[in-house]
Amino acid sequence: MSDLASFHDVLFPAAVSFGATGGPERRNEIIALTSGREKRNARFSQSRHRYDAGTGVKSLDDLHDVIAFFEARRGSLHAFRFRDPFDYQSCRPGRTPSPLDQAIGTGDGSAGRYRLVKAYGGGDDAYLRLIARPVASTLRVAVGGSEAPPGTFAFDEATGEVVFAAGSVSGDGLAVTCGYQFDVPVRFDTDRLEISLKAFKAGQIPSIPLIEVLS
């Protein structure tokens, strides 16, 4: 995990985030060879998400909340939690997270730590996204299909791992699964907000760029 000492554990205004636009970004290098074939290389092992929260500002109250939040974060200085309106839980939209949603490991009778991930796709081509900021109150874990009781596990934000309490490690050969809601750690991708009340009332919404802080 990277140093997130400048992370403020607060949520960007929810009413604005659910009107935001954006999504994952990949950075690939594609070289056209003289033969006509291509050589392709992935420069990012993990996708990086970008958003524009300006499209979520629907009222002057929303605008006020964003300005206050921007100032409290000192612009781009401090990262914070952002609820992705399209992808914020371990299951499909409209469903309730289940402790069986995502596989995070297989017990060996001694391991007590498992990296929290979300899988996209299946088989060998599946992409495992590292989840750094789950909503702690929604985190549910199961071992061998049976849900682990509250208090037998916790989430370590320093390592991004689900940690079983002493005496509660997963059994040998048993699947460790989990379900959760999560936020994306982001920062403002600008140190300046361009705001015009005249333009706002005319239907023009200022751009409020956000970029994911990778762990």
- Tell me the helix content: 10-25%
Oligomeric nature of the chains: single chain
Q: Mean pLDDT, nearest integer?
A: 90
* Percentage of residues in DSSP E strands: 35-45%
Number of strands: 18
Helix and strand run: EHEEEEHEEEEEEEEEEEEHE
* Largest sheet entry: 7 strands, mixed
Round the Cα radius of gyration to an integer and report it.
20 Å
Contiguous runs where pLDDT drops below 50 for at least 5 residues: none
Number of discrete helical segments: 3
Q: Into how many domains do the coordinates divide?
A: 2
Topology record:
Blueprint: E1 7-11, H1 14-17, E2 21-25, E3 28-32, E4 38-42, E5 48-52, H2 60-72, E6 79-82, E7 102-106, E8 113-115, E9 117-120, E10 127-130, E11 133-134, E12 140-143, E13 146-147, E14 153-156, E15 161-164, E16 175-179, E17 182-188, H3 197-201, E18 209-212
Parallel strand pairs: 1-6
Antiparallel strand pairs: 2-5, 3-4, 5-18, 6-17, 7-16, 8-15, 9-10, 11-17, 12-13, 12-16, 14-15, 17-18
Structural overview:
This protein is mainly beta and 215 residues long. The chain has 2 domains: 1-88 and 183-215, no CATH class; 90-180, no CATH class. Helices cover 10% and strands 36% of the residues. It is globular and about 65 Å long.
